[in-house]
Amino acid sequence: MCGDQMVIGVTMVNVLPGKERAAYNELNRIEGIKDIYHVFGEHDFVVIIEVEDLGHLNYIVDMIRETDDVTATQTIVGAELK
């Protein structure tokens, strides 16, 4: 990767029923999370993570998983097409 490229992760997050607001507030405190979208369907949130390397992406996803109200995550790593 070139010097200024970032790693983009898209993490789908499921939370305990009725805990969406609390989970959003906790997720919003995690550095490296660029955007959080509350969605309807199979998942409760789509979280966009932008970091400098895969190790840091893994660290952020671990932090999301450790959030009290989070029950499951699924992460996709983005790649640049040239």
What radius of gyration results from the CA coordinates? 13 Å
- Roughly how much helix do the residues carry, as a percent range? 10-25%
CATH fold-level topology: Alpha-Beta Plaits
Tell me the CATH architecture: 2-Layer Sandwich
What is the number of helices? 2
In percent, how much strand structure appears in the residues? 35-45%
Can you tell me the CATH class? Answer: Alpha Beta
| Shape, principal axes of CA atoms | globular
- Supply the CATH superfamily name: Lrp/AsnC effector binding domain/regulation of amino acid metabolism (RAM) domain
Q: List the domain count as a whole number.
A: 1
Biggest sheet, strands in spatial order?
2-3-1-4
Biggest pleated-sheet summary? 4 strands, antiparallel
Task: For the structure shown, list the relevant keywords.
82 residues; alpha+beta; 2 helices; 24% helix
